[in-house]
Amino acid sequence: MNLRRSRGFTIAILASALLTAACGLKPEVKDALQQNPGLAGGSGGQVAVDTDGDGVVDAFTTDPAAGGVLPDGTTPGTTDGTTGGTTGGTTGGTTGGTTGGTTGGTTGGTTGGTTGGTTGGSAGGPTAPVKGQGDTTGIDFASKTITVVIHGPLTGAGVPQESFRTGGPKYWEKSGPKGGFRLLFGDWKVKVEAVDDKYNAQDALRACNSAAKSAFAIFGGAGTDQIQACAQSQVLRRANVPYLSSGVTESGLGKLPNYFAGSMTYKQQSPLVIRAAKEKGFMNKKWAIVITGTPNFADARDSIAAELIKNGAKGKAGAFNKDNDIILTEKAPRDCLTVGNQLRSGGYESVYFLGQPLFFGQCVNQYPQATYTGPGPSFGIQSVADLACRGGAGGFKGFYLHPSPDKAMAQKGAAGAPAFTDDIEAGIWGGMQQLEQAFNLIKGPVNRQSFIAALAKAGTPGGVLQPAAYNGSTRFGGTGAYLNQITCSGTSGKIQTVATYKK
Q: Domains of the chain by range and CATH?
């Protein structure tokens, strides 16, 4: 069946997350159950448990010791639910178990069962949400609408951000018989609301905590400190809110039960930055690292420094030296005069830059002669390239990694999507494609737990963005990145994807 895309929604780029337990019911899961009645649902006050010991909450039961019923309607130990029982359901069978649900079957169980044939599910795939089964916060059953919230720097980052509001509809509104997009569980709408995190962690945390009350999932659009603050929110974790973001820092995020990075982190991208420098001819130069001094950038700083040293990079005086060739900055410095003087006195020719976009433009203005490089997602986009070209009076040149390709390449790969205004819209479109792919991984009724469990065990095949692979072992699912070359045409940036890398 087709998924109708709702028209009145605003959005930015990605993210959502999941609930896992280690082996059995973790203390924080028990805490979440106590503080969020939405985790208890269905007949008899069911609770979520990890039945097969794989680290994922994948069952609902009135008695955790009994093993429970899997979200796809099966009992542990059956093969794809083909054998029903008094507590298990069947997958594709005729009659579900007495207390279990069926997925794709004709008749559901007498207690809490679902009828796949009437909810649009296919055998072994997702079925429509069921009231009381799992946490369905953010799902409006009357209007058949699922709400997600994205936070992003609609203000405060120093570059225009209107595309964060417009990219989503270009994906979700292309639906119906002529559209190419499908949610497998029926004729449902998705509503996305964008909120401004003002490019600081405190406002981001407030926005995410508020959104947890009404959103099925939350997406982190940009900004390392903002993403890290929301990902670590106790409110989101206790409410079991899926939280997805672009890959940024890994600090404090690797073991969070409700977090997924859908693209490569800064740390994961460091070897690719070096690969690009070798291929594009700016490796054998004097290198400086200019990076915000926040602890959330420490993994990016340490990983790129290690890669430079391993690959024999030069600094201002001999071999690259972490004590001499790394320049730490504030998050949003007033100007780049001091940094510009440091770059100039060191005679640096290649600069790894990671920081605030407006400050980046100022630094290019102060020191335009270097080749600038670094990780995505912040610096491989058009608005930042334009800042750099204006700042450098047309002399800027850079090679930045990015989760999505240039606008023309993204448009070609977007299967007939309406024309993208810019590459931010293209990236958002790709993020929404990932979201739909994640929904379609679910087995059984859609809820926060089943979404999280399905994505944690697998990943997304990609499209405009590269595939993401979690496979039950990581929260950092990025598998590759695009290399965008940025040159100037006057004071406007020209972005062209010149390589596709896999990690």
A: 267-404+482-502 (3.40.50.2300)
